[in-house]
Write a structure and sequence with these properties.
It contains 12 helices and 26 strands. Helices cover about 25% and strands about 25% of the residues. With about 450 residues, it is of the alpha/beta class. It folds into 3 domains: about 180 residues, FAD/NAD(P)-binding domain, CATH 3.50.50; about 120 residues, 3-Layer(bba) Sandwich (FAD/NAD(P)-binding domain), CATH 3.50.50.60; about 110 residues, FAD/NAD(P)-binding domain (3-Layer(bba) Sandwich), CATH 3.50.50.60.
């Protein structure tokens, strides 16, 4: 059996390793357009900020070490140009410009996503960057190291944008964040985003919400960023972080089905519309477990999960279905941790589902033990059955373990009653006898049973 994998970061590298474990004799070729495979995308902002000092720590494997360890033919700087499905071949161009064809029995597409670059005047000026891969990271870091950067503008207040804002600030650079939406971190509800807004302003970050960049102009003193409000922000560096799109052109050009989100359509076994071709990661769309609406999920955890399943299914000993991702994400924003899982209240409302919410603000651990910080935990649930739709949490400590435990309950179609039955390890340095997860369940039960009729802030 001959397997070809397109894309060598999270999904592709994981699938290659899994296929080798399943089959010692198979021929496996891994194509990667860039110079690197299996690197830590999520660590890139922290390398720019100097938190991660050694560049080599970003690489889980090098092409040489991975190829030697798993007996995989790793070909970096080899771009797959097209797929001939009838001949079961891919057309490839190597670093020297030579084109050649390679046949396959099974093909896996893991091309990832590419950053959205809005067609703005001046977006290609010197000092304007996007950040998606190691090459982008190297370019930004080199520019900062070689120039005097006093002020930066980050366009986009998503997870990556805020992580970059923090890390630029860590290097002594004044940072402004411009966000078209009325809040940063759109996966969370406005009420929790407000906590993040206040924290960013406390740290000296300029926050321009509900404003869009109209253009960037190169001037003697640097770059001038024009907003639709008429304001001008002078900067030495601009980072465009307005989002990404699935890299589905290769699939579309091969007449593989592409969905309304422009992601590659796959079935429950992660097969495309061609049974010999599979796809995983940022490039695919897949129905959400709750709404059945196809959606894009740009997270490394699900990509690795999909890759393992796809490899099993390509090998064919046992076809294993993918259960879908609910979108569990977390980010460090200066001193705060912001995390979410499942559906936010605004998403449930948009989809027309009946819901209620419960918000609690307990301490991260017992209040009498030192360094007990308050956290805000919000859950979204069905007003009758109590089925959990989602949860969000913001705080300084203890956020991750609360969201992780709730995520497992949500993923298994649990309810607020399951929260009440949560059994957490308790000692004063770690939690309280009534853990915040259980406390949120108790409050939700009071709402469902009519013992408490909450007044929500929007109503007030």
């Amino acid at each position: 059996m001959k397997y070809i994998i397109v894309g060598g970061v999270a999904g592709g590298a994981t699938a290659a390793a899994r296929l080798r474990r399943l089959d010692e004799k198979a021929e496996i070729i891994l194509f990667e357009k860039g110079r690197h495979i299996s690197y830590a995308n999520c660590g890139l902002p922290y390398y720019i900020g100097g938190v991660i000092e050694e560049r080599e720590k970003l690489f889980v494997q090098t092409p040489e070490s991975f190829g030697g360890l798993f007996n995989v033919d790793v070909r970096v700087q080899n771009e797959v140009l097209s797929i001939d499905r009838s001949r079961k071949e891919v057309r490839v161009r190597d670093a020297g410009g030579r084109e050649y064809s390679e046949a396959y029995d099974k093909l896996l597409l893991s091309p990832g996503a590419f950053p959205i670059i809005p067609p703005l005047p001046g977006v290609d000026a010197q000092g304007v960057f996007t950040m998606r891969n190691v090459e982008d990271t190297d370019a930004i870091k080199e520019y900062i190291d070689r120039n005097t950067i006093k002020h930066a503008v980050v366009v986009g207040g998503g997870f990556i944008g805020l992580e970059m804002a923090e890390n630029l600030h860590h290097r002594g650079i004044a940072v402004s964040v411009v966000e078209f939406a009325p809040q940063v971190m759109t996966p969370v509800d406005f009420s929790l985003a407000q906590i993040v807004h206040a924290h960013l302003q406390q740290k000296g970050i300029g926050l321009y919400l509900k404003k869009a960049v109209k253009g960037i102009q190169q001037e003697r003193q640097g770059l001038s960023v024009s907003l639709d409000s008429g304001e001008q922000i002078v900067a030495d560096l601009v980072l465009m972080s307005v989002g990404v799109r699935p890299n589905s052109a290769l699939a579309a050009n091969a007449d593989l089905a592409v969905g309304a989100t422009r992601g590659i359509k796959v079935n429950e076994y992660l097969q495309t519309s061609d049974p010999s071709i599979y796809a995983v990661g940022d490039a695919i769309e897949y129905p959400h477990p709750f709404t059945a609406t196809p959606w894009l999920n740009y997270l490394a955890g699900p990509a690795n999960r999909q890759a393992r399943l796809a490899a099993d299914n390509m090998h064919g000993v046992q076809m294993r279905p993918y259960e879908g991702a609910i979108g569990t994400a977390i980010a460090k924003v200066f001193d705060l941790t912001v995390a979410s899982t499942g559906l936010a209240a605004k998403t449930v409302k948009r989809d027309g589902l009946p819901y209620r919410t419960a918000t609690v603000q307990p301490n991260s651990h017992a209040g009498y033990y030192p360094d007990a910080f308050p956290l805000t935990l919000k859950i979204v649930f069905h007003p009758v059955t109590g089925q959990l739709y989602g949860a969000q949490c913001v705080g300084i400590a203890g956020v991750d373990k609360r969201i992780d435990s709730i995520a497992q309950i949500i993923k298994h179609k649990g309810t607020i009653f399951d929260l009440m039955e949560t059994e957490q390890a308790y000692a004063p340095p770690f939690s309280s006898a009534k853990d915040p997860v259980a406390l949120a369940g108790y409050v939700a039960e009071n709402i469902i049973n009519g013992r408490m009729n909450p007044l929500y802030w929007r109503e007030m």
